[in-house]
Design brief:
Rossmann fold, 590 residues, six-stranded antiparallel β-sheet, Glutamine Phosphoribosylpyrophosphate, subunit 1, domain 1, 19 strands, 26 helices, alpha+beta
Amino acid sequence: MTALVALAGSWPEGALNTMQDALAYRASQWDQRSLDGITAAGGRNVTFEGSLLLPFEKGDGFAIIDAPEWLRRRLSPPCAAMLSASADATRWLANLTGDAHAVVVLPGRTLVAYRGPLSARPLFYATGPDGQVAVATCSDALTCLLPAKVDIAGLAAYLVPQLCDPHGSPWRGVRRLPPGHSLVWSNGETNCFPLTRLRPQDVTGADDEQLVGMFREALFTAVERCSGASDALLLSGGIDSSSLAGVYAATGLQPVRAYGLTYTEALPACDERSYARDVAMETGLLFEELPADKLLPLSASYPVRHEPEAWPYAGRNWAMLNHIAHSSASPTTVIAGEGGDELLLGQVFAIADRIALGDTSGWREIDTFPRPNRVRRVVNHLLAGDYDAPRARLERALKDIPPWFTQEWMDKADLLSKLIDGYPVLGEAGGMTKVYSQSLFAEAGAAGRAQCGGWWEDAGRRAGVTIVYPFFDPDLASITWALPPHMFRNNGLEKVILRRALDMFLPSSVISRADKAEALMILNSGLQDNQSRLRSIGKDSPLIDLGILDPVRYKSALIRYQNGDRRHAPALWALHSVDDWLRAHERHLP
């Protein structure tokens, strides 16, 4: 894990050192340089070899690249003649297509900050009253420079799970740089620009077997790129993590130990031990199980950081990280399967695309769903383009908003408009599978928190390991987005391409498995076991004091939940998470 900080304009003396001190838990050594009143530094830990600082050849200027080594090698050496303007620097940085942050400092008081299109980690910035700008890997490196006050409207993205806000943060004056964007500061003026999206690979003329081979090769490369000095694999028994185990077995990469959170009689619907054990036996991996029956949301603790953590599995994954870090074979790198759903789930979009492209067998595929009549209606709406209509987007937003917020706060946060604008525009049937996947990737990286990056990455650092995600590899995404829709879902199975690519390395029990355990069972078990804590929010909470939560509406909604209405279960957990965070940061409330 590394870190990045930069300052442009007139900041108080020692400001950069203050930012570095705030990120001491991420980086113990820093490379720093200044030019024309702009200062930037790249921080690394003791396990990182080399410098993040790249001085320009043949001229003034420098770059700091926070990216994996394989991605850094794609860049030609920085040269002043080649990077004479911010547009030149942006084009040069666009070669960092994966999990990358960077800054380039040019002569003439110009700073370019960059976040790669598939960066799972956030990059923050803040502007000062006199046109200054500050950039940092984590928001705590910025709130130590600014008056640290909670942004009430900025809490919306944490309170409504369906809301994707690629720009905001819970801190007043602190913004996120969305993935695939550059921030340019030039002589006191700051502007944000979107970059060209990662393009699907050209696979013209390739048949299914060739596509499977290309995908397999890209997946093997992605895992190899992520592999560290010693690896641990999070193994659940689902196809995503199981396929990563298959890659280790197939490629002969270094021996790796697999770890799994296992559920037993307490949660039989979530018991995946037999699948994970089958994978371990087939691949030859050592498999260590951590019982998770008690590691439920609200029941298991986790560290509260500088942003609210609305990930229902934060407690159990924090326990797993500590278990791995303190095991006898302590690894340096943890390989995680996050990103597999975002990349490879075809769902009803793949069915509509098949039909639109002339594959009439798509109609038969509908019968493999648990509720085919409902799915048939959805497919017909997709084929007609109804879901992009303003009315459909409005109706969806109204359903996604939990009933317990005050109207005043929803107006202040512009909640309804943000939800409507945040839904992906699917476009014409025939290409919706790709658009849906790209949109999910954008959402996963937009906030840069929870499952990939943000809190999860910081939790790993505090446990002494680095967490990496092979499914966020840009070359793997590029080939995946070029695949025909029947390779996403077919014969009742999702992620068909993944199963075909790894079928010779995984047990048949996993290859033929339609789906893994219902994750919402874990969430609801935690909520059911902690009813008293949920009730307490409606009686005494900073959310009430701040005018966000209507206690009467909340009490009614909680009663409906207790009587079996589970529609807003994730939002209930999010509400509790934000309540906890506000109590921990009470001194920062407006």
